[in-house]
Design goal:
This protein is an alpha/beta fold. The chain contains 19 helices and 18 strands. The longest helix has 30 residues. It holds the Pfam family Sigma54_activat.
Length: about 500
């Protein structure tokens, strides 16, 4: 029995004389083939093949989820091909732009940032490979997918040398181009995550735990946590201040995790850890040949953090020439890679941190006044550990538990005498000093002898222990001022609250 006769497809001719079927631009519900790889593209020339494009099976599965936030630029002189690619990509991508020639494409790159460029090779005026090579030389970092119907081995080699990430032969179906775009996005995401993770490991070796949460229930900690909750959802830049070791990066990560950028990159940068002659290239990126040793172009940390949060720690250590460049980025939200002729737009949330008094640095001429006023929109000061009450005991217990697992050492009990010593000590190194004390304790198997309450053999702490010296000194000053705690605090350079807390512990 013969089935129903299939309708013959309507054929049309494109600008280059190639024939394509109108039905090929209509959605279908079956058929999936993967895009041609670079190797197969080179090995299978397509000279004489019709440059058609077919809209295959609707590809809305999880394998194309990376496209949801992608910005795509289509460069092709054929209206039919541009229309097909727009119809394929627009429902799945955040932004899809099109350009009819390379001049129009260059203008769009000057004003927008794209994750992937889909580029036809054979176009009037200038072919895609030559244009791509030119753009790489002036600061174009996005992946490019070359599409062509007339490919050979030489074209494939030229495309690779020009920096094409993939090579797709016409005719192709919709899921072939979707797969190619998804591969580009996944590869770039993995590259950026790898670089940011390696940078974070180099720059923050002592930030092993507590990186995402502010621990503690003291009044000072609760005030900081409440402020963070209020500002996290806003685009406002934040300046975190406080002494070293108070948890400024922890606060920055908390702000990021509570914001609408939580699923985007969080990129921490320690400005003091980067050599002054390299900091511009690290932050802004560079093109190939921009300086000695720049054998290839690379995006900087500003672009790696695109869409997410950039945390600039120790901002007071930023060299003066870089301060003016940072001010320009804050005002224009555009970065110019080293050696590039083009500025690239970026979408960033900025969080800054410093343990210096920036106002005093401005008065000394070490920090730009205009940058300080631009940073100091919303300032959050992190409290000292000694002003956080019983938070020190909670932090000590967490460090003991986590570090004992990491070091493979049995935890050391924190008895009543140790708890008293932990609560009475001033912690000039703040949380970082506490962590180091717990790690040293685990290595020794007991709290060090120079820490009060550390003896595990029943003996009392030595008379010259740090805590005992501190106790004698504070009580001596109190005696000199006839018990005036306000005056004693002024002479000692500590808060009245600290004097009251220590006197309570000593039953004075």
């Amino acid at each position: 029995m013969l089935g129903p006769r299939r309708k013959r497809p309507e054929l049309r001719c494109n600008a280059k004389g190639a024939v394509y079927a109108v039905d090929d631009l209509k959605p279908k519900t079956s058929g999936m083939t993967f895009s041609t790889t670079r190797a197969s593209a080179a090995a299978t020339p397509a000279v004489g093949r019709e440059p058609t494009a077919k809209l295959g099976k609707t590809a809305a599965g999880p394998e194309f989820s990376a496209l949801a936030q992608a910005a795509i630029l289509i460069v092709d002189d054929e209206p039919g091909m541009r229309n097909f690619l727009v119809r394929t990509l627009a429902p799945r991508c955040k932004l899809v732009d099109e350009a009819a020639d390379t001049d129009q494409a260059s203008r769009k790159l000057d004003s927008n940032r794209y994750d992937v460029v889909i580029l036809d090779n054979i176009m009037p005026g200038k072919n895609g490979v030559d244009w791509l090579a030119e753009q790489r030389a002036v600061g174009f970092f996005a992946d490019a997918i070359l599409i062509t119907a007339y490919a050979n081995l030489d074209t494939a080699i030229q495309a690779l040398r020009a920096g094409a990430a993939d090579f797709v032969l016409k005719p192709f179906r919709s899921n072939q181009i979707l797969n190619a775009v998804a591969r580009c996005l996944d590869r770039v995401r993995l590259q950026r995550e790898n670089y940011v993770l390696r940078y974070a490991l180099r720059a923050s070796s002592d930030r092993t735990f507590l990186r995402d949460n502010l621990i503690g229930q003291s009044a000072a900690t609760l005030r900081v946590r409440e402020t963070i909750a209020r500002v996290a959802g806003l685009p406002t830049s934040i300046l975190l201040t406080g002494e070293s070791g108070t948890g400024k990066e922890v606060a920055a990560r908390s702000i990021h995790s509570l914001s609408d950028r939580a699923d985007k990159p969080f990129v921490p940068v320690n400005c003091a850890a980067i050599p002054p002659d390299m900091i511009e290239a690290e932050l802004f990126g560079h093109i190939k040949g921009a300086f000695t040793g720049a054998d290839s172009g690379r995006e900087g940390l500003f672009l790696y953090a695109h869409g997410g949060t950039l945390f600039l720690d120790e901002i007071g250590e930023l060299p003066l020439p870089m301060q003016s460049k940072l001010l320009r980025v804050l005002e224009d939200r555009r970065v110019r890679p080293v050696g590039s002729e083009r500025e690239v737009p970026v979408d960033l949330r900025f969080i800054f941190a410093t343990n210096a008094e920036l106002q005093k640095e401005v008065e000394r001429g070490r920090f730009r006044a205009d940058l300080f006023y631009r940073l100091n929109v919303m300032q959050i000061r992190l409290p000292l550990l000694k002003d956080r009450g019983d938070d020190v005991l909670e932090l000590a217990a967490i460090f003991m538990s986590k570090l004992s697992v990491q070091l493979g050492m049995p935890p050391v009990p924190i008895d009543a005498s140790v708890r008293t010593a932990l609560a009475s000590y001033d912690w000039p190194g703040n949380v970082r000093e506490l962590r180091n004390l717990i790690e040293r304790t685990l290595i020794l198997g007991a709290f060090p002898d120079d820490f009060a309450g550390s003896r595990t053999d029943g003996q009392s702490a030595p008379a010259d222990s740090l805590a005992e010296l501190e106790r004698r000194h504070i009580l001596g000053v109190l005696k000199e001022v006839n018990g005036n705690r306000e005056e004693a605090a002024r002479r000692l350079g500590i808060s009245r609250k600290t004097i009251d807390r220590k006197c309570a512990l000593w039953d004075v």
